Model the fold of this input.
Amino acid sequence: MLPDKYRTVDFFAEDALPAPRVAGAEAELIAAEHLGITAHAEALGSQQDANFLLHSDDGTPAAVLKIANPAFGAAEIDAQDVAADLIASACPELRIATVLRRPDGSPRRTTVDTETGPAVARLLRYLPGGTLSGPRHLSPTTVAAMGTMVAKVSTALRGFRHPGLDRVLQWDPQHADRVVAKLARHIDEPERRAAVQNSTAEAWAHVQKLAAALPLQAVHLDLTDDNLIRCPDNRPPMPDGVIDFGDVTTSWAVGELAVSLSSLLHHDGIEPHHLLPAVRAFHAVRPLSREEAEALWPLVILRAAVLVASGRQQAAVDEDNAYAKAALDREWRMFEQATSLPMPVMIRLVRDAIGMADVPARTAQTDTQVRRLLRDLAADDIALLDLSTDAECMDHGAWSEAGSEDHLAAAALAEGMAAAATRYARARLTRTQVLSAVSTSTVPTGIDLWLGRDAVLQAPAAGRVLGATPGHIELTYGAQVLSLSFAHPVQPVSGTGATVQAGEDIARLSSGAIVHVALRDADGPTVPRLVRPEYAAGWLALTADPAPLLGLAAGSDCARERDLLDRRDAAFATVQGHYYANPPRIERGWRHHLLSTEGRSYLDIVNNVTPLGHAHPRVEEAVSRQLRRLNTNSRFHYASVVEFTERLAGLLPEPLDTVFLVNSGSEAVDLSLRLAIGASGQHDVVALREAYHGWTYASDAVSTSLQDNPNALATRPSWVHTVDSPNSYRGRHRGTDAVRYGPEAVAMIDELAASGRPAGAFVGETYYGNAGGVALPDGYLAQVYAAVRRHGGLAVADEVQVGYGRLGHWFWGFEQQGVVPDIVCVAKAMGNGHPLGAVITSKEVADRYREQGYFFSSTGGSPVSSIVGLTVLDTLRDEDLQGNAVRVGSHLKRRLAALADRHGIIGAVHGSGLYLGLELVRDHTTLEPAAEETAELCDRMLDLGVIVQPTGDHLNILKIKPPLCIDSTAADFFADMLDLALSQLGHGHTG
Done:
């Protein structure tokens, strides 16, 4: 018997909606007899329908057979199919699971009998690629792409009308309160049941205030990670397909986004703030109204509550539904995450994300009737403590010392100030935690006060005492609550419930008292003293700056980080790129840590520019001292340039005894080539492929890294000749066959000479840094150096990245090869961040430069640069940083090698000491580079508190070259976070 033509489901008229019980054999029979397709049926999961993937004889997917729940009428099914066709037409860039049609254009669907009544069965287009479901962490790019897709679907359905949309679904947020009320009894645990009921009541009450202003339209209402299909060729996963139109109905338009957001909350490592890229992306395509922005997070909570209650009910009434039972844990995690912060916080965070935040930031009201909180204490009597990242008092790692805030306050009081106060809303570096996978709560929602003399707290305005205990006082202040907390017991003057007038005593404080002062909305949640930066915009919107109550000026709004990035792009040539699409603003470093203006600490794994560590006191003191005395150019006579060049030459074997000082590695390589060509009289140069040497004309000419210049090999000048990258892991000759690289390079050098163009120089890194720290084959440089010298050329060693003790077992990379070059280029590590480079060669080669003219570098070898160079060498020696590279580097390499057993994407661990490379591949046989996966991994590592970047021609190698002062604890943190990130991104070992 056919269903009534216009019948639609009413969830509240049904006891339950168990999925139709259809066996695989029955599905195959339905497909063959009714829908004209012979195939093998594979059962797919569903809450309330029966779904099967139909495979052709050769195993390829042919279609999806969907047998709708018998409660759904024909009009509802038709509405679903029409909606799918509509979206497919409006959004051709998306793949849509539309109904398959017969030659006459009619849909391939029929009505079949099931145990629970007649049901509509139809064939739908199969979309390859798989869904986004599962625990895998989703990157911000993927999350944003979901938001964009949801907005496109919402826009396409905006004008859609159909009788089959008039249905009452348990998934429709318009009925969320009734659904939870009906099904909550299936949540067995009393605490969880109460949590669901309470959160539902709060969210529903908020939505009801806005409901009249929320637009209604046709909605898919199930654009979740289960129903968004990944583009088959994309890495990381990016959605481009939509399936399962079973919940199409008319509802609040913003509910479409809320449903999608809630589905993300169970993924590994996902917190509420990780959903904001989807909100922004949706808003960019289909702008949210202010009311929709206000309702969005409450609807996320309602969706999560409905999922928990419905999931428990479905598992109870449909005991054989493995899909429903498997979802119970992840549905509870969604609810936990949705309610992990107070709803008002998330509402304001959403508004802030799309530019609807309340501006300007609120401050305490200070009209003429308001009294200062501290009687007889003027603003000039209060020292303001700057605890931010750029505060001078944070220098020399002071931020990391226990009790630093108390020490700074005590110092201010010792200088005669009556009080010391912190600043509202400005992140405190003193509260950061190093080596943390999550950000620390660093943003203050109030002010801390240290008193240097006795004082009286007075009511700033008439109000009522809400609470009064020896450690805490709260009283009303207009529409806000003034909260006063004391480090030591303080007896309140008035008790709870008392009314106080402006100027009336609240408490009497003794010198040495510490008070926390905060203002929050009277109808808002309790606000922590410090909050995490990601959520600060939400929390601060519920508070006000209490500084005016102390007679202090309210803190000015800090410029948004995005504004600063826009300014950079406007004035700073964009070809000078930056790490990360949304980079943290780094304004301080200390040892192997980098610190953002939000007080987030990052482990620095990429900075071989600062081998001693960031902000090393010896370097800072030496530079400051020299700048106070003299800084000029090396044509003047002074001791430091002599002492530095003697020290540098003394680190090299004979006959390398003469030094040129420049400012960078690019200049050093450029100069080295001029020296070699001048000394040899031969203008051709042989260089290794997959190498980077600099940006000047000559150094760029011999740079062949495809990542730095995709056309590098095709655009080399005629005087540059390249030989194969001697990469024993992924080059033409691998493993033991890598010994063939040397003879091949020698043959090429001989051929050049035979053609009448003998090479004047061979230039190459002595340890393949740009390729990720790959050691050259044993004996390679000995063979190549001998060949180029045999024809009158010179051997140039580029030690810019790998030299200066970074390799641990060798101070110079050429020592690993057992050779001595004719010219050595060095930079980066020499100045610990100060621009300093050098070329070291023999006196004979250096003297030949005079034939080309004179050499002069304005700041190369200046007194400051020379002092920096000496200080770096002293510190490398005194702190045994080369030895540390051996110890910590060996430990870290063992940790990384162990990870390769756990994660199949790791192809190799390259390098020595603290120049390591972790190469990621998709296949251990073909060595297909995992470039996109590496980029996604770097982004995830940033979120986990580690700065690491890719290198190599394919950008599939993590370059691991931290400051040489890194310790084993930090190395272990890096390895642990790498393990975690690889697991979260789905790269576990598969066999």
Summary: The chain is about 35% helix and 20% strand. The CA atoms of residues 675 and 846 lie 7 Å apart. The mean pLDDT is 94.
